[in-house]
Design a protein that fits this description.
The structure is a single chain. By secondary structure, the chain is α+β, with helices and mostly antiparallel strands. It is built from six helices and five strands; from the N terminus they run ααβααββββαα. Helices cover 28% and strands 24% of the residues. Strands 1, 2, 3, 4 and 5 form a five-stranded antiparallel β-sheet that branches. It is flat and about 80 Å long.
Length: 162
C-alpha cells in the first residue's frame, strides 16, 4: 500500500496549502541591483584637496562615472545606486551615493562633496504635448471607419482607387 494512499484527504489539504504558501512567499523575495561605483572612505581619504591632480585621483580611486557637461572637465561624479524590485512593481531606490570632485583651472582638486538618497530632489518633467488638428478617434472608430468607403473591386484590384 502506498504511503499517500494511507494519508487521509483532510491531512493532504493543509500540506498542499503550506507548499503553495511557501512558493508564493519565495516568489515575493525582492530582486536587489546595484549600479555604479563610489569609492570606499578609506580610498577617498587618500585624496588631498589642494594637492592632487586628475591623474593622482585616477590612480587612487579610478575614473569617474561621468564628468561635468557644461564646465568641461571641472567636476567629476562618482555615482552608485541600489534598487529593490518586488514582483511586478516598479523598482524602488534603497540607497544612492554621489561623490563630486571639483577641480580648479590647473586641474587640482579644490573641493569634495558627498550626497545620499535623502539629498536628491524630484524633478518634475514637463509632459505637455502640442495639440494637432482633427478628431481623436478611438481604436474601434479607426477600425470601423473605413467600412463602406471601398468597393470590392478596389480591394481586389479590378477597379482603380481614383
Amino acid at each position: 500500500m502506498d504511503r499517500l494512499d494511507s494519508t487521509p484527504a483532510s491531512a493532504r489539504k493543509p500540506i498542499a496549502l503550506a507548499l503553495v504558501a511557501a512558493v508564493l512567499l519565495a516568489a515575493c523575495e525582492p530582486v536587489r541591483q546595484t549600479h555604479g561605483y563610489v569609492p570606499a572612505e578609506a580610498y577617498v581619504k587618500r585624496i588631498k584637496v589642494g594637492e592632487d591632480g586628475r591623474a593622482d585621483v585616477v590612480s587612487k580611486i579610478g575614473r569617474p562615472s561621468t564628468t561635468g557637461t557644461f564646465e568641461s572637465d571641472e567636476e567629476w561624479y562618482y555615482i552608485s545606486r541600489s534598487t529593490e524590485t518586488r514582483a511586478f512593481f516598479a523598482p524602488k531606490a534603497t540607497e544612492q551615493k554621489v561623490m563630486v570632485l571639483s577641480f580648479d583651472a590647473d586641474g587640482v582638486v579644490k573641493d569634495m562633496n558627498r550626497y545620499a538618497l535623502e539629498d536628491g530632489q524630484v524633478v518634475d518633467l514637463v509632459t505637455r504635448t502640442t495639440p494637432t488638428r482633427g478628431k481623436r478617434l478611438t481604436f474601434l472608430q479607426q477600425l470601423l471607419g473605413n467600412i463602406g468607403r471601398f468597393t470590392p473591386g478596389q480591394i481586389t484590384g479590378d477597379e482603380s482607387f481614383f
